[in-house]
Amino acid sequence: MSTILKYVPKCKVATLVVPNNKEFWSDIRSDADRVATDIRSNGSVTPYQTEYLQVLVRFFELFGQLEGDIPLSPPKAGGDPNILAYPLPNSVAADPESIRRWAETWEVFDLVLPEDGAWGWHGFENLVFSDIKECADFPQLLRLSENGDEDLLEFDTEVEGEAAWDVIEVDLFKDDVTTEEQNLIWEEREKRSDLDDPEKMKKRRENLEEYFIIKYEWESSALDAYRGWADTLEAGWQNFQKLCDS
Known about the structure:
This protein is mostly helical. 42% of the residues lie in helices and 0% in strands. The longest helix has 21 residues, at 21-41.
């Protein structure tokens, strides 16, 4: 066991970085900024987006008041927490009527249907061609001649072949059947001899670094914890092989 404990640290492949509380909330603040900017730049903001933007603004105010050091859980209060005063957001405290503004204008939703139906439908037996002209949504659904006789196409339930839709061959994946394009790719890969080239793999990792830095607007130092991962992995593997041989 002592020998294993001696070599296990050399098999480490990564370093877990745990941000402190301010770093955590700064990252959240950055994401919230982008969301708020997207909403403000939207030409047609929905009521739900407006309410969400108000929540984000309150978060920005809290972030500023606590200088980014927001506790992950509310402080514990003695006694019954249900009797504590609930702090209203500044926007609501300035306009209390906004909490229940709808209560003054709401109307009872009428669920009583008239005898001829909610849309004034009179039934198929009374439907004539002149009625169809007034229903822009029905011409393709209801095909009626001028005398009122139905002229609907018969629904065909016959299925030709294995199914009513296009299907792949049976056991296509089980038998690992490949296409001509896939065969060409395999042939090209078999000809390559640089897949394990350390320099090419290093270049690929550098391209990945550049991608994340540009996409997420990261500082280069944010990737320090991940750099050298491949080298650490290889060194750990070599040390593990030596341990097995010994």
